[in-house]
Design brief:
single chain, 136 residues, mainly alpha, three-stranded antiparallel β-sheet, 51% helix, 10% strand
């Protein structure tokens, strides 16, 4: 059986599933006064992820490092399922206008870690390669 035939045997619903994962959040744990706060993230669509990532690239096509945190807050806002950063009551309660600002205020520097986890779940970062880089 070739790959096309094998793909035809996969239930159609499988192609539309969005990967989700729970991860620990040290910042949320500290904020809530608990030891094991978890957040739920999901994969972000490729077009959305690319569009958000492009925010750190200037007109000449060069990466602007100083914009990376802002881009990561937007990726986190797009990829976090729980807590719901789009919740209007939550936004008002913490005094921000957008989900990205909520991500910045709640998670602070941990935004970068969460963004990397969303990128991995979305297929934009190869976990095996990342682990090899860390070991070397």
């Amino acid at each position: 059986m070739n790959l096309a035939e094998r793909l035809l045997a996969v239930d159609k619903k499988e192609f539309d599933k969005i990967g989700k994962k729970e991860i620990d959040s040290k910042q949320l744990s500290k904020l809530l006064g608990v030891s094991d706060a978890k957040i739920t993230i999901q994969a972000v669509d490729g077009d959305i992820y690319t569009s958000l990532s492009a925010g750190a690239v200037n007109k000449k096509g060069n990466f602007e490092y100083e914009k990376s945190f802002s881009v990561n807050t937007k990726i986190v806002a797009a990829g976090i399922v729980d807590p719901d950063l789009k919740n209007e009551e939550l936004l008002k309660h913490i005094g921000v206008a957008t989900p990205a600002e909520a991500a910045r205020k709640i998670f602070k520097g941990e935004v970068n870690v969460i963004s990397d986890e969303i990128a991995k779940l979305s297929g934009f970062i190869n976990e095996e390669e990342t682990e090899k880089e860390v070991k070397n």
